[in-house]
Specification:
- The complex is a heterodimer of chains A (498) and B (489).
- Chain A is built from 20 helices and two strands.
- With 498 residues, chain A is mostly helical.
- Chain A has a domain at 277-497.
- Chain A has a two-stranded antiparallel sheet.
- The longest helix of chain A has 32 residues, at 156-187.
- Chain B has 489 residues and is mainly alpha-helical.
- In chain B, a hairpin with an 8-residue loop joins β1 and β2 (69-73).
- In chain B, α3 (25-53) packs antiparallel against α4 (75-98), α4 packs antiparallel against α11 (238-267) and α6 (129-148) packs antiparallel against α7.
- The chains are: A mainly alpha (498), B mainly alpha (489).
- Chains A and B meet through β1, α5 and α6 of A and α17, α18, α19 and α21 of B.
- Chain A: Belongs to the CPA3 antiporters (TC 2.A.63) subunit D family.
- Chain A: It comes from Marinobacter panjinensis.
- Chain A: It is a multi-pass membrane protein.
- Chain A: The chain crosses the membrane at residues 6-26, 38-59, 79-100, 112-139, 165-187, 208-233, 245-265, 277-295, 315-338, 378-401, 413-438, 459-482.
């Protein structure tokens, strides 16, 4: 095999090996552990950059072997995998930096960072999987490696949230396995392929295909938190902030959304999905989830819970985008995979900073926090405006592309949903911003801590500022090559003209 | 060469047994550790011979069946020989450190261990019904002895119960063998198949098959005949529990499966096949449910065995009157299930033993906080759990995938539900243990730290069962190796 075949394997291995090394390190090996983490994250980022360039130029990266009789294990890089891989590589680095600061002096850090790296390895595997079987492998590995993170604090609430998380995700996994095995029986081992496989499928298997599609979406929809399968996500916010970032932005919900996109585009093919009548119901479901979760978010008093419902709503943008049969709207959906990740991770970092520095968890405690923590609050404000869709930030690009795309294919109702959802976004974010900047602070904060010169620990301070800057940049520079938007356009170009 | 390998597999364990019978525990341990090395090399040698040249029949000492001992050495048999070598040596090494040499009756551990090993090899390689019976009895009696080594009243009660079940099972099996001999005049399985090719099926031979399978099902603890298993496996010393769950119950299943695959098509019927599958499914659901409710850690693991054994019996409906490709998938799936369960369950019992040793209590709720003190053993336990939950990339997952394919391919979708529900239920009991140990409670801070080697052995086994899924295609290709010459021996 050539070196190119090995690059995806190396990209997977960086975090896998980091995880094993970290498990083996003693609990007190704080510096060494941080170094291993950062080196692995940088190495992975480098490999991903190499692959992004290669995929753009049309280089083939791939490796496969027979794992179970009749099924192959395939790793390969295409334009879409690089999108997800790029997201997780960049955000892993930032989240690791953040987590080092966040977990300072807390117990069980070795376990935490070990599973954290394992999570990222699973995410990489999901991104690079070349067929549904391989995808499933890493999808389940992700479930198992996130459980110890969700229950990290070992309190009764954490364990309860962990149980809910497992019930949802493992059941979803079982349904997904059934669907994949069934599809394998019907059509054999299907690699992910631009344009899909079922454009002229035998009419005899149409009914099976429709049922399998429903099972696939149900199985993947648990992680993607589509209504009514979203119940685990708001509960899982008891986890430490870096874990929430991982769940909401880098790995878990993205894995579900990514899988649905794979199924629609690279297994069924968007034209076949549309012909089978599968896209329309999916778009309704996504639209309903967007509105429903926004309304629920309005009524939360806990900041992280509000953000959690906001995630439920925002992830469905991706689903809505791809379930509209039209390339421009789909570009909007795909680009949101990145945009939502960057914006949401900013918000969770900030929420974590407020909690760690001032002891704030509820929204009504946030009065005047902007003056005490200006850096964090600026980042939070940018993230919130991004979510609302204010130009020229990340969220605006998404909504604009999706809106104009759906108008182009005469699906005007989507624009109504987008506008309405933006109003709801504004309704649940603006009061928070108002409290941050315009209300007087109370006499004391619940648990204030001080770290030298900066408003908070440097480990916690810089990551949200960086991601906030990225939120601005992906919006302003959206038309440059290698921006998320251009990359999404490249994917769609390949999908619609395979 | 082959002769020496055969002798090495079947008779040298008996020699080790006698040698260790003559010495005390500590010297027996030295003999055993040397013996393990020899056995592993011999097993590996036979495995290499078969994977190079294919399988063969072998009449020991030149006598043909029914008088002599007929051996059938194929890919499946050598795979199990090798599996036994791996698991038994792991248990042997573990036991050498785990078992207290000061108790006088513990010196009997080694002889029983070696009798068990030679019985297992006899079953994997046996080609005629009577010698299979001899191997089976050797296994049962040494297993009962090993359970009784616990020494306390509970262990004696459990072993007595085990003995009764084993004897009853043997009796039913022997009755079936006698009927077969009366009808066919031979005890060689291949001979019977050969005979059936030329003659019509004699009346009453279905009864003989049913008797044998029922007896073997009792010895394998198929629901509802499972009641003897959890107390025996739960109360035995951890290395013993590991041996029993990983290998002993598989031996009787192995015979049942071979009888079914060779004779099921002419002698069995659809209703019986479905009934056995139904009992297996009931075992999966009921066993898992009970595992979720046990208060003692090792009982959880023991009931999990009842459930996992249930899957094996899906072999019967999934190979009866189905297409050849479906039947092959089912056989491959079951074989992988046997291997991955053996590795995972041995790992789990050994790790559970460590946890019990560390907390000083057998109870699940005593595990609070142990994740910080014994993370390595807990991690072995959880990794073995991944295989039991049949999540990727474990051998259990590959097995489940093949069984799902076989169920869907033969249109028997009802087994799909069993496979999925079984997986979820096993997740419940595995995570119940993890949850208990993740609880952070400042009260318990007194933990005993077991010897490092006790922690490493289960980890190796767990990793093997986890990695099996990645190489299952290669493992299955050796198992599928045909005989050099087809037809009659």
């Amino acid at each position: 095999m050539t070196l190119n075949a090995w690059i995806p394997v190396f990209a997977l291995m960086t975090s896998l090996i980091a995880s094993l090394v970290i498990f083996a390190l003693p609990e007190k090996g704080y510096r060494l552990r941080t170094a291993v983490n950062l080196v692995a994250a940088l190495l992975k980022l480098g490999l991903v950059v190499v692959m992004v360039r290669g995929v753009f130029l049309g280089v083939d990266y791939g490796v496969s072997f027979t794992m179970v009789p009749g099924v192959t294990f395939v790793l390969k890089a295409d334009a879409f995998s690089m999108m997800f891989a790029g997201l997780s590589a960049v955000l892993w680095l930032l989240t690791t930096i953040y987590a080092v600061g966040y977990l300072e002096d807390s117990p069980n850090r070795s376990r935490f960072f070990g599973f954290f790296s394992l999570c990222v390895a699973s995410t990489m595997g999901i991104a690079l999987a070349g067929n549904l079987f391989t995808f499933f492998l890493f999808y389940e590995m992700l479930t198992l490696s996130t459980y110890p993170l969700v229950v990290h604090r070992g309190t009764e609430t954490a364990l309860k949230a962990g149980r809910t998380y497992l019930i949802y995700t493992l059941t979803g996994g079982a349904v997904l396995l059934l669907a994949i095995a069934w599809l394998h029986g019907v059509a054999g081992d299907l690699p992910f392929r631009e344009g899909g496989h079922f454009i002229d499928a035998d009419p005899d298997i149409h009914r099976s295909l429709i049922l399998i599609f429903m099972l696939l979406v149900a199985g993947l929809g648990v992680k993607a938190a589509i209504f009514p399968l979203h119940g685990w996500l708001p509960q899982a916010m008891v986890a430490p902030a870096p874990v929430s970032a991982l769940l909401h932005a880098v790995a878990v919900v993205k894995a579900g959304a990514f899988g649905i996109v794979r199924v629609v585009y690279d297994i069924y093919g968007v034209e076949a999905s549309s012909a089978l009548g599968l896209l329309e119901p999916l778009s309704w479901l996504a639209a309903f989830t967007i509105l429903y979760a926004s309304v629920r978010a309005l009524r939360q008093v806990d900041l992280k819970r509000r953000l959690a419902f906001s995630t439920v709503s925002q992830v469905s943008y991706i689903i809505l985008g791809v379930s509209i049969f039209g390339p421009v709207a789909a570009v909007g959906g795909l680009v949101h995979l990145l945009h939502q990740g960057i914006m949401k991770i900013t918000l969770f970092f900030c929420a974590g900073n407020y909690a760690e520095t001032l002891g704030i968890h509820r929204i009504d405690e946030m009065d005047g926090a902007g003056r005490r923590m200006p850096g964090t609050s600026v980042a939070f404000t940018i993230g919130a405006f991004g979510m609302i869709g204010a130009p020229p930030l990340a969220g605006f690009i998404t909504k604009w592309t999706m809106g104009s795309g759906s108008l182009a294919v005469n699906m005007d109702w989507v624009v109504v949903v987008l506008v309405f959802s933006s109003l709801l976004n504004a309704a649940y974010f603006l009061p928070v911003l108002y409290r941050l900047w315009f209300r007087e602070a109370g006499v004391t904060w619940p648990h204030e801590r001080h770290w030298g010169r900066l408003e908070t620990s440097a480990w916690l301070y810089w990551p949200p500022l960086l991601t906030a800057a990225m939120t601005v940049m992906v919006g302003v520079l959206a038309s440059l090559p290698f921006s998320p938007l251009s990359w999404a356009e490249l994917i769609m170009l390949r999908e619609y003209a395979p | 060469m082959t002769l020496w390998l055969m002798a090495g597999l079947l008779f040298t364990p008996l020699a080790w047994a006698v040698l260790t019978l003559l010495t005390d525990f500590t010297r027996g341990r030295l003999v055993t550790w040397g013996g393990i090395l020899v056995q592993v090399l011999v097993s590996l040698g036979l495995w290499l011979v078969v994977s190079r040249d294919g399988g063969f029949y072998y009449a020991l000492g030149g006598w043909q069946a029914p008088l002599g001992i007929e051996l059938r050495v194929d890919g499946l048999a050598v795979t199990f020989v090798l599996l036994t070598a791996v698991v038994a040596s792991a248990c042997g090494f573990h036991a050498g450190v785990y078992i207290d040499p000061d108790k006088p009756w513990h010196r009997y551990f080694w002889p029983l261990f070696w009798f068990l090993w030679s019985g297992l090899n006899a079953v994997w390689l046996g080609g005629d019904l009577f010698n299979l019976y001899v191997g089976l009895e050797l296994i049962s009696l040494s297993a009962v002895g090993l359970v009784a080594l616990g020494g306390k009243a509970g262990a004696l009660r459990a072993s007595l119960r085990y003995l009764l079940a084993a004897l009853l099972g043997s009796l039913a099996y022997l009755l079936g063998v006698a009927l077969i001999y009366g009808q066919f005049g031979t005890l060689s399985i291949a001979g019977i198949v050969f005979w059936l090719e030329e003659h019509p099926v004699p009346a009453g031979s279905s009864l003989a098959l049913a008797l044998m399978v029922a007896g073997l099902a009792l010895k394998t603890a198929l629901f509802p005949l499972h009641r003897w298993l959890p107390p025996a496996h739960g109360i035995a010393k951890s290395p013993v529990s590991a041996l029993l769950s990983a290998l002993v119950v598989k031996a009787s299943f192995y015979i049942a499966a071979r009888l079914w695959l060779e004779l099921g098509e002419p002698l069995g019927n659809l209703a019986a096949a479905q009934l056995v599958g139904l009992l297996g499914s009931a075992a999966v659901v009921w066993g898992s449910w009970l595992a979720c409710r046990q208060m003692e850690l090792k009982q959880v693991v023991a009931y999990s065995s009842v459930a996992q054994i249930g899957y094996l019996f899906l072999l019967f409906p999934l190979t009866y009157s189905v297409s050849e490709s479906v039947s092959l998938q089912a056989q491959q799936g079951i074989t992988l299930q046997v291997i991955s369960h053996a590795l995972a369950k041995a790992a789990m019992f050994l790790a559970a033993g460590n946890l019990v040793l560390s907390t000083g209590s057998r109870r699940v709720d005593a595990l609070t906080g142990v994740s910080r003190f014994l993370p390595f053993s807990l991690f072995s336990f959880a990794l073995a759990g991944v295989s039991l939950m049949s999540l990727p990339p474990s051998g259990g997952f590959a097995a489940k995938w093949l069984l799902l394919q076989a169920s869907l391919g033969s249109g028997q979708w009802w087994w799909v539900l069993v496979l999925l529900v079984g997986g979820l239920l096993s997740a419940v009991y595995v995570f119940r243990i993890c949850r208990a140990s993740f609880l952070e409670s400042p009260e318990t801070n007194q933990f005993y730290h077991p010897h490092r080697s006790l922690e490493i052995i289960p980890m190796i086994l767990a990793l093997l069962s986890l990695g099996l899924g990645l190489v299952s295609a290669e493992v299955l290709s050796v198992m599928a190796l045909p005989f050099e010459e087809e037809g009659s021996p």
